User: What shape does this take?
Amino acid sequence: MPSDEGLYGEYGGKIGHPDLAKAMQEIEVGFREIIKEPDFIDEMQRLRETYVGRPSPIYHAQRLSEHCGGAQIYFKREDLNHTGAHKINHCLGEVLLAKKLGKTKVIAETGAGQHGVALATAAALMGIECEIHMGVVDIKKEHPNVSRMKILGAKIVPVSEGAGTLKEAVDSAFNTYLGELDSSMFAIGSALGPAPYPEMVSYFQSVVGHEARAQFLTTTGRLPNKVVACVGGGSNAIGMFSGFLEDEDVALVGVEPAGEGLDTPNHAATMSLGVKGEIHGFKCYVLLDEQGEPAPVHSIASGLDYPGVGPQHSLLKDLQRASYESATDKECLEAFMALSRMEGIIPALESAHAIAYAMKVAKEMSPDQSILVNLSGRGDKDIDFVLDKVDL
Ligand SMILES: *Cc1c(COP(=O)(O)O)cnc(C)c1O
Assistant: This one.
C-alpha cells in the first residue's frame, strides 16, 4: 500500500496541478469505496468468469522444459483472456469505476494500441464513450489495432506534435482530460503514473498472481522457485508478483528489453541502467538523455518501449525483493519461435522477453525445480513483424 502521499518508499507520488489533484482524489476515494462494495465484487467476479474467461489456466510446457534441459517451465496463460492479454483485467475495473463515479467517458493514450483496444472493449461492454489519443506514427504502424478500436466504437484522436508517438499522446490525452474533469475519467494503461493509478492497476491485476499461486499449489503441491514476468510499465509483472510477495523462498524476476544490447543506446532497460528521476508526474527509475529529459528508448516489443517504470517495481528493486534482468531483441525472437514451434503457442513479443530469460536460467537449474512465467499476451499482433525478421 502507498503512503498518504501516494509514495512507495520514495517512488510514485501525487500530481501537483490543483484541478487534476482534485480529480485524482475523487478517483482514489471512489476506488477505495468500490472495491468494498458487494455489488462491485459480484459484478467483477461475473465478468471475469463469463466475459474474460478467468481463471486462465497454468500450463506445464514439457517440450520446452525438456529442450532447455533444466527446470520445469510453467505458463500462466493470460494470452487466453478475451482480447488476448492481461490488460483487460484492469480496463474492466477502470471502466466500472468510471461508471460508478457518474462519468460518461473514459480517455486514454495508447502506444502500440493494446491498451486502447482493451479499454475500447470494456467501454463498449459498459456502454460508455471512449476517446483514445495516439501518435500519428503509431497510428500508421499499428493499423490493425486502430481498426479494432474504431469497430469497437472508440474515437481516435491523432496526435502529430513532436515525434508523434506515445509521449505526445499522453500530453494530448491529459490536455483533453483537463477540460472535461467532471464528465470523464482518465484510464492509464499500466501500473504507473500519479496516485492512485499504480495502486488501482496493481489491485485489478493482482487476480493473476492470486490465481496462479493457488493453481500452482494444486497442480504441483508446492510453490515455484522462480516467478518471471516482462516489465514495460510493470502491470502484468506486479499483478503476478503480488501473489508471491510474502513467499520469501520464491524469487521474483522482472525482465526488461535489452533491445540491441545494454552497451548500445537502443534498449529500454530502465531498472538495469536507469537512475532515480521523474516522468509523467511520478518518481521512479528512469532512463534520461544528456539534457536530463526522458530518453528515447527502443524495443522490438512496443508494449515495453517506455523510459520509466512503475513505483512499486522501483521499490522492490531497492528492497531486493525482486530482481530485474533483461533480454535482447534477438533472444526475444528466438524465444518467440521456440514457444511457437515446441508448444504451438505464439506469444506476444513482450511476453517473449520473459520466456527468453526463463529458457536461459532454466538450464542452470535442476529438473525438480520450477519456473512460472506470466504469458502476458498472445502474438497474433506480431506475426507480420516477426516474419520480416526471421528466415523460415
Ligand atoms: C502492454 C503489454 C505489456 C507491457 O505492459 P506492463 O504494464 O509492463 O505489463 C506486456 N505484455 C503485453 C502482452 C502487453 O500488451
